Amino acid sequence: MDPGKSPLLTDLYQLNMMQAYLDHADTKAAVFEFFVRKLPARRGFLLNAGLEQALDFLEQLRFSSDDLEWLASSGRFGTNLIDYLRELRFTGDVHAMPEGTVFFANEPILRITAPLPLAQLIETRLMNIVQLQLLVASKAARMLLAAPGKLMVDFGLRRAHGAEAGLMAARASYIAGFAGTATVLADKVFGIPIFGTMAHSFIEAHDDEKAAFEMFARSRPDNLTLLIDTYDTQAGARKVVALAPALAARGITVRAVRLDSGDLIALSKSVRRILDQGGLADVRIFASGGLDEDAVTHLLRAGAPIDGFGMGTSLTTSSDVPSLDCVYKLQEYAGLPRRKQSIGKETWPGRKQVWRTYDHAGRMCGDVLSVETDQQEGEPLLHLVMQGGRRVAASPKLADIRARAERELMRLPEPLRRLETQNYPVEVGQSLSRLAAEVDKRLRL
Amino acid sequence: MDPGKSPLLTDLYQLNMMQAYLDHADTKAAVFEFFVRKLPARRGFLLNAGLEQALDFLEQLRFSSDDLEWLASSGRFGTNLIDYLRELRFTGDVHAMPEGTVFFANEPILRITAPLPLAQLIETRLMNIVQLQLLVASKAARMLLAAPGKLMVDFGLRRAHGAEAGLMAARASYIAGFAGTATVLADKVFGIPIFGTMAHSFIEAHDDEKAAFEMFARSRPDNLTLLIDTYDTQAGARKVVALAPALAARGITVRAVRLDSGDLIALSKSVRRILDQGGLADVRIFASGGLDEDAVTHLLRAGAPIDGFGMGTSLTTSSDVPSLDCVYKLQEYAGLPRRKQSIGKETWPGRKQVWRTYDHAGRMCGDVLSVETDQQEGEPLLHLVMQGGRRVAASPKLADIRARAERELMRLPEPLRRLETQNYPVEVGQSLSRLAAEVDKRLRL
């Protein structure tokens, strides 16, 4: 059973509201926008990802006969709702920022325009799809900024939160600029380069570590990486040196060693020395084991001669920030702008556009959030991507999304390239504050 | 595409190792155990969940012809591996702690005995499946301990990490003792009670809040809960009071109001007063909005008259602890116990059993971790659940797992019922330390 396939993967209140909307013929066009209310601590920017899967979800939205029978038999809903759901397809418009775009708090990255019951139904799963990749792409971007020029690989499937989280983490981190992933399915589904070495269990299954290295090398001679920390890392490195000539005689080159435990600064330095003195100056050192962008920064500042990193759990769970304060809010219904005034959770009403300006060096220098029709200076970031339920253009290639992200990270203002700062100016346009005041005046409270 | 269905949802190194194992006929029986190396900060215990889905995964394990063709066409693997994968089914044994059991660091909750390449392949997805539910069940247990007697409902699908995470969070929190979930699919798939109210968008879609309440009430009269914080919470409560007689005349009873923002202590008290003075003493107050077990503790200590809680993101992402230091380690191969000695990551070798003793009041008072055959005092917690790839008994009903979890939480030692302590004694039996010493002696290092 694919839990992502059924539109019943939603909150009950969506169906409750749909019932009430249908009962009162409240089916006029609604506009919802998805945005992050507040950047989390330690995120100076976010990187957009997940749009492609969101559009897939919308395009494929339909209730199976099995879903409909189950809903009907639950006795919770009227036949008007069941009939409505039977015919339901996503017929709305979608405006979005392209994947691979940097964005900030309060900037919509997705806008849905659709009949109210439909626009309401999709809220839960849309958020569930998009947040996941936003988290991982943004975390991955931090890791890349911490380790310029290093090979970064996603190793985190095992502790990602389920199947979809693992697969989409591979996609989102690749978009951000990772070289690839260990997740095999990500190659099959997305064509993402995959990387793999060996586990400690392989070494442990043989009583002799050197014999285990040799066996593995003969079976897996390409891009050979040996894991050397199962028992004693330096001894492991010396075994690699001892083994290399015999392997070379068979045409097998050791490409790298992997360290997965211990003091990675001291060990990488001593392993580097052992390899260099053993004539293996070309053998790279790859590190893994509970690393995040702070650990990587620390290692590189201390001069650890590490050439690449396997980023696991901290990447795929976005461990320091495992959720975003992201919301999907009604901005307009039946032609009138709407807003929420709940304490601390007020929203800006109406359809919005984000305008970005750049300095002479091409660095981002500030955004303006305006009412959609209020033309401002700079580049508008939201574009129509789906109209009447159909994509207006073919999806961009993953490689192009990745190239966009790379360019975007280059265009970040310098302070945002550090891991701690949050100081990008997002200005609220006059048109928007005026609109908010009008909405407040209209509401009978 | 269901990413959880393909055995390609694994790390490349598993396939690399399988290739090497097959090339060298290393296909003898291996024993792997899954355990948590160290309890995270602020977790005095963990609650087992996810076994059912792990067994489903094992039972359904097979490579589709599509998977096999893709693997073959990748050029990475020998035909011996492709042929092996074509016929591969899970033929091993599984020992496990029942779902709903409390457990501690270093205690295996799952043991796989299977031919080495097979046991290796399944590592990644098995961990991915099990960790997810462990995280949520354990987080949910904390929330329940913080709010005895309160109605707790999972509201967290939208910010769970993907589809599977959202659905399984509903299951895991229900096992722990939650009353139910907002996730509709969890009712269809697992029969978990579902709960749902209304969103702010429903109120905002109508310019008049009271009219919105009335419309909703007439369409959704059962278990009616009204969301009263869209504009002004106290005004919202007064509108409910004003509306109640007209609704009662139509046979509709307001059951609850929901607060989702602001100072929940002050607001719940004033709303309680408004409702009571308005003759609505039976109307319950339900709270939601970024709550976790600490917030709930704080609210209840301050005397907030809240009857139930919707727990969202903090539950489904296990926000303070979004991953466990869980591992799946080779403990025996070809009849010989194995262990890893990597710095800080040493493991206890061999097949293990966990023995639990209770005091006269029935509270857990300590565990012993021993070699499987070393009979100790107390109750053994690991049992054979799958033999030769088949379940040895029908799966327990979800209600029974939930009842077990409830009993287990009752049997927790008093200090572990608080949110901060970690002091449960798990002793390593002499048989195990002796075995570790023997393994170390055997290894040629």
List the helices and strands and how they pair.
The structure is a homodimer of 445-residue chains.
Chain A: H1 12-23, E1 29-36, E2 46-47, H2 51-60, H3 65-74, H4 79-87, E3 93-96, E4 102-103, E5 110-115, H5 116-121, H6 123-146, E6 151-154, H7 163-176, E7 180-181, H8 184-190, H9 200-204, H10 209-219, E8 224-227, H11 233-249, E9 254-259, H12 264-277, E10 284-287, H13 293-301, E11 308-311, H14 313-316, E12 326-333, E13 336-337, E14 352-358, E15 364-371, E16 379-380, E17 383-387, E18 390-391, H15 398-410, H16 414-417, E19 426-428, H17 430-442
Parallel strand pairs in A: 6-7, 6-11, 8-9, 9-10, 10-11, 15-19
Antiparallel strand pairs in A: 1-5, 1-12, 2-4, 3-5, 3-17, 12-13, 14-15, 14-16, 17-18
Helix pairs in contact in A: 2-6, 3-4, 6-7, 6-13, 10-11, 11-12
